[in-house]
Amino acid sequence: MLDFFGDIGGAIMAPLYYVISAVLVGFHKLFGGLFGEASGTAWVLSIIGLTLVIRMALIPLFVKQIKSSRNMQLVQPKVRELQKKYGHDREKLAQETMKLYKESGTNPFASCLPILLQMPIFLALFRLIDQAAKDPAHERGLMTEQLNTQFGDAVFLGAKISDTFMNTDDIGVRVLAALLVLAMTATTFLTQRQLMSKNMPADALTGPYAQQQKLLLYVLPVVFAVGGIAFPVGVLFYWTTSNLWTMGQQFYVIRNNPAPGTPAAEAKEQRDRAKAERKGLKTPAQLEEERIAAEAEAKRAEKAQQVRQQPQRQTKAQRSKKKR
């Protein structure tokens, strides 16, 4: 039975081995020509190149994640209203909440998609590195026995690509692995912290969604820290690079397209206002304020004109006098 499931898992992972190894080998040809084919620097740079290719491919999903996360923030007041209204009926509450999500184009699970899609890639890379160190003759994807040997034995800053914090007694290797685990944990925490502190409105910082975000803020780094001590150095480079990409990408989106009513939105409005003042121009917010004020003034003028045009009421004596 275990062999049966193992065969199914192998069949599922086989395409990933080919895709990942193709990108990895492609970068290795580039960097191997510069630093040497067996160089740890060449293989680490190849892993970083693989990470960047994967993250660029996931940009459409990241955009979808940002939109869904923003929608989740904006509908939280309505969700709380539904909770007050249907708190006694969980089934009705669930139905109305899902209806609200559907109407607002919100997917509660979209924020997990980039991580979920990276997990098989992460696992495939883990297996490639592990297999290269333990059994170089076992070829996977485009990794030949020679490439496996180079990959498994490649040394970077005194540590093999395949070394983990747990499987070595070398203090230098453990220090490097520990630093990479800390970097991976810190970037995970800072990315989530950046989202909560800058791109969430005040009314979204309470309720179930806020609790979920706080859970991710503190639990995910702990999970990565505990699991990281068993990751090969090469995988730690992959995940840390991926986290740095996420943090930078998120910073760019929050800075340039923040959610309404958030500290990031206020900061952007202040930057736009200062930039416009330097150039002698008006910001979009100022133009919008002027448009609203002009529309209000036009309505007041129209109302005043209607009042002037309405015939004045006359008393009975005034009407009788006019008839004479």
Describe this structure in words.
With 324 residues, this protein is an all-alpha fold. The chain has one domain. It is built from 13 helices and 2 strands. It has helices at 2-35, 40-57, 59-74, 76-86, 90-103, 113-134, 145-153, 171-198, 208-228, 233-256, 263-279, 284-309, 316-323, and strands at 155-156, 159-160. Strand 1 (155-156) and strand 2 form a beta hairpin. Helix 2 packs parallel to helix 10 (233-256). The longest helix is centred in the N-terminal third of the chain and has 34 residues, at 2-35.
Q: What topology does this entry show?
A:
Elements: H1 2-35, H2 40-57, H3 59-74, H4 76-86, H5 90-103, H6 113-134, H7 145-153, E1 155-156, E2 159-160, H8 171-198, H9 208-228, H10 233-256, H11 263-279, H12 284-309, H13 316-323
Antiparallel strand pairs: 1-2
Helix pairs in contact: 1-2, 1-6, 2-10, 4-5, 6-7, 6-10, 8-9, 8-10
